[in-house]
Design goal:
Bound molecules: zinc ion
Shape: globular
Number of strands: 12
Largest sheet: 6 strands, mixed
Structural class: alpha/beta
Number of helices: 8
Length: 243
């Protein structure tokens, strides 16, 4: 089985479309897994939801997905994120809201647990260090855990009681062997690792490998839509900076 693994789309339809085109180029995938934050920050929340629905993507909820439907108070978010979420809430249709409401916080798919933040704090914790990863290995029972939220493609491997981090880069595949791992495919719609290209992964059960891909997309098209929508300028600028 081949699965495309997407996270943090953040209502960036141009980035999502570029990723879907790239996935098609890599060969057929059987399923698309989405690790939350479909909406928030970006200008096309409803369009991204519709596309994921059409593709029958398997999604878990992110903090922005919950914030946009009033399930997390906006004062939890920083001021620009909160402003974008208020804008998003106004744009969502009843069906969009229903879709976001029904997203589960976690899901197990074979050897993988899918969650947005971390196994111990589903919507809020950022797994960005070996210490946070180490603590979290005790909170899931599958061999591997897929997370998003940090917008940085990074993996953590637990072996002999020791946890090491591995930066995920295109062209270098991650072999999924018996060691337990926490894997983050990076962000489709708002990368924060200094590379503004959209990030996603493909897992292939045939060779047990995870491949990371980076895809250029029309950043300007998304930025123009954000400016037209009156979304905060800081959010517009960070797309081209990739941070
Ligand atoms: Zn996010």
């Amino acid at each position: 089985m081949r699965c495309a693994i997407l996270a943090d789309i953040h209502a960036n339809l141009a980035a999502l479309n570029a990723v879907l085109d790239d996935i098609a180029k890599q060969g057929k995938v059987d399923e698309i897994w989405c690790l939350g934050d479909i909406v928030g920050y970006g200008p096309e929340p409803g369009e991204c939801i519709s596309l994921l629905k059409k593709l029958k993507a398997i999604c878990v909820a992110g903090n922005h997905d919950r914030g946009a439907i009033g399930k997390i108070e906006l004062n939890y978010f920083n001021p620009t994120a909160a402003e974008a979420l208020e804008w998003t809430a106004e744009k969502l249709t009843t069906l969009d809201t229903l879709y976001l409401e029904e997203l589960p916080k976690t899901m197990d798919k074979g050897d993988f647990m899918l969650v947005h933040g971390s196994p111990s704090s589903h919507l809020f914790e950022y797994i960005i260090s070996t210490s946070s990863a180490t603590r979290n290995f005790a909170f899931f029972h599958t061999r591997y855990c897929l997370v998003g939220h940090t917008h940085v493609p990074l993996a953590f491997r637990q072996e002999g009681g020791k946890v090491t981090s591995l930066l995920l880069m295109p062209g270098r595949s991650l072999i999924l062997d018996e060691a337990r791992m926490i894997i983050n495919p990076g962000a489709v719609g708002q990368p924060r690792d200094g590379d503004p290209r959209a990030s996603y992964g493909i897992y292939d059960s045939e060779d047990s490998k995870f491949h990371l891909y980076r895809v250029s997309y029309d950043i300007r098209a998304t930025q123009d839509k954000m400016v037209q929508a009156g979304l905060p300028l800081q959010l517009v600028m960070r797309l081209e900076e990739g941070k």
